[in-house]
Amino acid sequence: MTWNQQLVKMKNKSRVLQTIIDQSPISRADISQHLGLTKGTVSSLVNELIEEKICSETGPGKSSGGRRPVMLLFNEQAGYAIGIDLGVNYILGVMTDLSGNIVSENLKHMNSMRYEETVLVIKEIIQSLLDFTPESPYGVIGIGIGVPGIVNKVGSNILLAPNLGWTDINLKAEIVAEFHLPVIIDNEANAGAYGEKRFGAGKNFENLIYVSAGIGIGVGFILQNSLYRGAEGFSGEMGHMVIELDGKECRCGSKGCWELYASEQALLNQAMNIQSNLKRDDLNLESLVEMAEEDDEEVKDLFRQIGRSLGIGINNIINTFNPEQIIIGNRLAIAKEFLLESIMEVVENRSLRFNQENLNITFADLSIYSTALGASAYATENFLNSDLQENLNK
User: Fold this and answer.
1) CA 45-49-50 angle, 5° bins
2) Which residues lie across from 210 on neighbouring strands?
3) Hey, which of 218-232, 262-276, 379-393 has the most confident mean pLDDT?
4) Tag placement on the chain: N or C end, fewer CB within 10 Å?
5) If you write DSSP's letter for every residue of 100-154 in order, what string do you get?
6) How far apart are CA 129 and CA 86, in angstroms?
7) Rounded distance, CA 60 to CA 340, Å?
């Protein structure tokens, strides 16, 4: 088989598999019609996928006249992926099947994020998930990790993570050496955008922007159905967009950065100054949400301030990118009922009218899981694509 023929076959096999994933149960004839491929080609590729245990046959479907067709299913339990969301004050690990369904999870809150200590916790979380991997043909097929910082183009080094205090860290090498599995590392906002596009609020949109509002702020762009990374892979650092010319000093070295006024950290810093019955030890996002739910007006006003600051940055994003959808995710999504009104007030008053006409602003469907699920999806797709490639090269 020539290289061109191999390439065509790999592309067609990938299309057949994606059709089964998207539309199962589906028959060979329907795949053939849907993709415009001959029945013989589809049958041959489907047989390979069944042999590889990626797909399976199920009982006959409805007949449109003649014999009832055998239906095909995606075997989502052929293997499992691990997704890690490395937050600034937490680490969340999930194990998913190949369709992104969570089968187990592990969340640890962290006070210190020193590199050596953090890596140990990441390894502990991965090992705890591995220990309870269900039986499957392929076992754990890879690990995806979303990190709050700038990752180089090939995904090996974390060049800068200001809120962690990390510079030029090769996390990938450490995880590969420990577990001997494929590892993919990406910026957490990119992974969050991808998670929401695949499984959450962004499913029906082609141009969406995910605002990851945690201790800091990151932004992930899905433009024309593809993740946009920028020329060198550094796009999305909009938490460091300056919104106050001579504002507070930021860990990134600049002043007046958006995340200093609109993040979970900004909320916690401002909460220390309000006159309330709040003790320092009890100061966290969850306790503030609880107080707002109990009608503490000072705390509710604090959320409104944060919402207005979020709205200012979101307004700049809207006027720059003209997206169909803005999704607000990560930790601050927990407080959506106390943030949305003030965000919308700023957007409605400041954004250009024609940018607002078909704009959907919402909070993440996946709650705190957007990044972890996006990271596990990276691992799954890497496995499915490399599996197709390996079998073509045999």
Assistant:
1) 115
2) 220, 327
3) 218-232
4) C
5) --EEEEEEEE-S---HHHHHHHHHHHHHHHHTTPPP-SS-EEEEEEEESSEE-TT
6) 15
7) 48
Indicate the pairing of strand 208-213 with strand 183-187: unpaired
Answer for the pair 330, 372: CB distance below 8 angstroms, yes or no.
no
Q: Which residue in 93, 356, 336, 21 sits closest to 201, CA to CA?
A: 336
Full DSSP string of 137-199: SS-EEEEEEEESSEE-TTS--EEEETTTTEEEE-HHHHHHHHH-S-EEEEEHHHHHHHHHHHH
Band (pLDDT 50/70/90 cuts) for residue 251 is confident
Instruction: Using alpha carbons, select from 393, 392, 326 the residue that is nearest to residue 355.
Output: 326
Contact 370, 329 (CB under 8 A): yes
**Neighbour-count burial for 168-193, b at 16+ CB within 10 Å, e otherwise:** ebebbeebeeebebbbbbbbbbbbbb
Give the list of residues 6+ apart from residue 153 with CB closer than 8 angstroms, or none. 229, 232, 233
Model pTM score = 0.90
Separation of alpha carbons 82 and 129, rounded Å? 8
Express each pLDDT in 333-352 by its tens digit: 999 999 999 999 999 998 88
Better pLDDT: 276 or 30: 30
- Cα 112 to the chain's mean position, in Å? 24
* Predicted pLDDT at 222: 95
Burial group, residue 364, by CB count within 10 angstroms (0-12, 13-18, 19+): buried
Pair 363, 202: CB distance under 8 Å: no
Q: How far apart are the first and last CA of the chain?
A: 11
Could you give phi then psi for residue 119, rounded to 5 degrees? Answer: -60, -40
